[in-house]
Model the fold of this input.
Amino acid sequence: MKLVIFGMGYTARALLDEWPDDWPCDVVATTRSSDKAQALAGQGLTARVFPGDDLAADLAGASHVLVTAGPSDGRDPVLAHLRDAFANAAPHLDWVGYLSTTGVYGDHAGGWVDEETPLAPSTARGRARVATEAEWQALHRDHGLPLHIFRLAGIYGPGRGPFERVRDGTARRIIKPGQVFSRCNVEDIAQVLIASIRQPNPGRVYNVCDDDPAPPEDVIAHAAALLGLPLPPEIPFEEADLSPMARSFYAESKRVSNDRIKTELGVRLRYPDYRTGLARLLSAEDAE
Done:
């Protein structure tokens, strides 16, 4: 196997950490700086700077590709540079995974969505993701690219949890009535990707999230309880000093169904809700 990863970040690292020992694999991983490329090379990976280096030859020899890089200025950076290379490589590729977002569904006032729900994003980021998904799907349709789209909910995991903010007193419980988010532990994302590689189904779309969409203030409150610290203060959404990115997340409320990853891929989530996920993060901290 030869795996090419566009965007060697948090989720891609989790995938490599979960990679089966009985799958010998050469890994080519991209990053945006030469310094980070040197660091990746020191970890035994073949590192490329992208955009910059020509990855056409890497794609020509690849069996699997994971694309974690999101749109930049409304455009997909991978397709902007390598659309023809992907079209040419399609016949010999076994699996291509594109990491998208549940933001493509838009706002459903707390209602449920699944992979068949029409896409109606209400943010510029969501609209860029819809356009990018369509571009990748065109390569699947026109050239047989073995594409699999994974729509990820909010990602958390080691180093990305609420505990630090609760401990240092910066955590807030922002209250917007009716607001719910779906989320997923990065280890579960990795096992979904591996399950798909084991049984590819080109053209398929999968929601990746846990079983328990919940208000964000509940997650903060539970983290404080686990730490034995006071409940962070409530702040009405209208009064919260949020970045444009954070505010855009609150523009949409929905519950995301994950039935397909269970019924088709046989995935059994390690962390089916934020309570089990946070407990695991805290126990891992204590073990260090």
Observations:
- The chain is about 40% helix and 20% strand.
- The chain has one domain: 2-159+183-211+257-271.
- The CA atoms of residues 174 and 218 lie 10 Å apart.
- The two ends are 34 Å apart (CA to CA).
